[in-house]
C-alpha cells in the first residue's frame, strides 16, 4: 500500500465513520432525549415502562441484524468483487425477508399485546404504561425494521451520508412529535412510541432518494447462480445471537433488579441503560464502519488495508470511551436528574450505579468490536462464542449478587465482562488464531 492509497483509505474511513457516528448519535440522542422528555412529562414510571419494553425492541433489532446486517456484509463482499448479480440477489432476499418478519410483530401487536406486556412486567403499577408504550411499537414494526435494513444497505452501497441525514431527521421528527403527542394531544406514554414510528417513516422516505442515484447498485432481482439464504443468516448470526442474548439479559436483569430493588432500583437501572446509549454511539458507529468499509476490503482481499481500518477503529473507540467514562464519573447527579430523579436517596443510588456502569461498558464495547473483526476475518466460531457469552455470562453473576450481595449488584456487569475478556484471550492463544484474510470466499466457516 503506497502513501496515496493510505491517504485515500483514511479519508474513506473517516467518511464512513462520521456518517456511522451521526447515525448512531442520532439514535442514541433520540433514545436518551426521549427518556428525558418522558421523565419530565410523565415521570419515573414512564421511563421504567420504556426500559421494560426494551426486550421486544431488542428482539426486532436482533432479526434486523440476522437478515439485514448479514445481507449488507455479503453485499459488501460482492461489491468488492464487482459481482452485481450476487449483490442484487442478496439485497432482494434480505429486504423481502426483513419486511415479512416485521409483519409478524404487527400481527402480535393486534392480537396479543396484553400477553406480551404481562410477560415483560409483573408489577401491577407498571403494567398499564408498559402496555401503552409497547402496542404502537409492535404495530409499527415494519417501519422500524425496514428503516435499519435500508440504512445498512445504502451505506455499504456508497451513501452513508444520506443514511445519516435520514436517521437524524427521523429522530428530530420523533422528538418533536414526542412533545406534540404526549403534552398537546394528551396521549401519555403511548404518544412516545407513536412518535418513534412516525419518525421512522419519515427516515425511510428520505433514504429512498438513494435509488435515484446513477451509481446505485441496489436493484431487486431474483437472478442467482446458487441460493444465498444460509450465507445471509451465517453472516448475520453472530450479531443476531449477540442481540438475542442481550434481549435475554435485558429481560432477566429487569426481573432481577425489580424483584431485588423494587421501583427505585428499576429506575436506576433504566438510567444506567441510557448511559449505555452513549457508549453505543461510539461502539455501533465503529462497528457499522467495519461492516461496510471492512467488508469491501475483505472482498478485495486487501489484508493491509483492512488492518489499517481496524487500527484506526480501535484508536477512535478507545479515546471516545475514556472521555465518556470521565464525564459520567464527574457528573452522575446531572445525568440522574435529567431522567427525572428528584429525591436525594434515588440520586445517591444513581451516582453509585452510574460510576460502576461507566467502567463496565468499556470492556463490553471492546469485546463487541472484536466480535465483528473475528467475523470479517472468517473466524466464525470465535465470533459465535463471543456473541453468546457477551450477555449471557452476566445473568448468573447478576443472580448470585442479587441473593448474596445486593449492595454490590451493580458490579455484576463489570465482573462478567472482565472474565469474558480473559477467556477470549486464552482461547485466542490456545487455538493460535491469526488475523489474516483467508483465500477464497470469506463466507466459509473457520475457527
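^ C-alpha cells above, recovered residues below v
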Amino acid at each position: 500500500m503506497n502513501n496515496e492509497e493510505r491517504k485515500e483509505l483514511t479519508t474513506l474511513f473517516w467518511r464512513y465513520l462520521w456518517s456511522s457516528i451521526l447515525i448512531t448519535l442520532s439514535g442514541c440522542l433520540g433514545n436518551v432525549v426521549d427518556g428525558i422528555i418522558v421523565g419530565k412529562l410523565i415521570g419515573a414510571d414512564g421511563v421504567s415502562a420504556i426500559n421494560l419494553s426494551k426486550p421486544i425492541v431488542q428482539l426486532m433489532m436482533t432479526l434486523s441484524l440476522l437478515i439485514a446486517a448479514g445481507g449488507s456484509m455479503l453485499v459488501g463482499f460482492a461489491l468488492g468483487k464487482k459481482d452485481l448479480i450476487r449483490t442484487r440477489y442478496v439485497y432482494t432476499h434480505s429486504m423481502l425477508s426483513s419486511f415479512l418478519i416485521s409483519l409478524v410483530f404487527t400481527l402480535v401487536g393486534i392480537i396479543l399485546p396484553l400477553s406480551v406486556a404481562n410477560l415483560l412486567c409483573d408489577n401491577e403499577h407498571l403494567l398499564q404504561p408498559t402496555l401503552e408504550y409497547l402496542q404502537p411499537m409492535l404495530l409499527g414494526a415494519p417501519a422500524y425494521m425496514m428503516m435499519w435494513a435500508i440504512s445498512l444497505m445504502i451505506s455499504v452501497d456508497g451513501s452513508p451520508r444520506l443514511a445519516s441525514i435520514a436517521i437524524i431527521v427521523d429522530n428530530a421528527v420523533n422528538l418533536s412529535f414526542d412533545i406534540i403527542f404526549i403534552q398537546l394531544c394528551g396521549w401519555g406514554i403511548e404518544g412516545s412510541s407513536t412518535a418513534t414510528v412516525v419518525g421512522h417513516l419519515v427516515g425511510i422516505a428520505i433514504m429512498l432518494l438513494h435509488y435515484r442515484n446513477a451509481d446505485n447498485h441496489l436493484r431487486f432481482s431474483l437472478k442467482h447462480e446458487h441460493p444465498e439464504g444460509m450465507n445471509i443468516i451465517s453472516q448475520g448470526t453472530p450479531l443476531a445471537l449477540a442481540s438475542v442474548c442481550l434481549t435475554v439479559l435485558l429481560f432477566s436483569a429487569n426481573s432481577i433488579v425489580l424483584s431485588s430493588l423494587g421501583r427505585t432500583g428499576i429506575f436506576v437501572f433504566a438510567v444506567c441503560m441510557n448511559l449505555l446509549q452513549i457508549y453505543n454511539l461510539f461502539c455501533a458507529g465503529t462497528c457499522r464502519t467495519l461492516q461496510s468499509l471492512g467488508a469491501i476490503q475483505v472482498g478485495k482481499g486487501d489484508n493491509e488495508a483492512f488492518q489499517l481500518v481496524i487500527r484506526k477503529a480501535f484508536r477512535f473507540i478507545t479515546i471516545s470511551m475514556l472521555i465518556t467514562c470521565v464525564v459520567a464519573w464527574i457528573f452522575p447527579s446531572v445525568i440522574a436528574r435529567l431522567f427525572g430523579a428528584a429525591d436525594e436517596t434515588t440520586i445517591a443510588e444513581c451516582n453509585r450505579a452510574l460510576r460502576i456502569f461507566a467502567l463496565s461498558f468499556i470492556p463490553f464495547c471492546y469485546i463487541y468490536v472484536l466480535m465483528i473483526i473475528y467475523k470479517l476475518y472468517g473466524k466464525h466460531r470465535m465470533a459465535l462464542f463471543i456473541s453468546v457469552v457477551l450477555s449471557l455470562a452476566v445473568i448468573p453473576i447478576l443472580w448470585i449478587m442479587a441473593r448474596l450481595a445486593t449492595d454490590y449488584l451493580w458490579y455484576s456487569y463489570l465482573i462478567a465482562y472482565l472474565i469474558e475478556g480473559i477467556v477470549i484471550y486464552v482461547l485466542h492463544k490456545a487455538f493460535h488464531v491469526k488475523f489474516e484474510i483467508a483465500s477464497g470466499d470469506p463466507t466459509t466457516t473457520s475457527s
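The mean pLDDT is 81.
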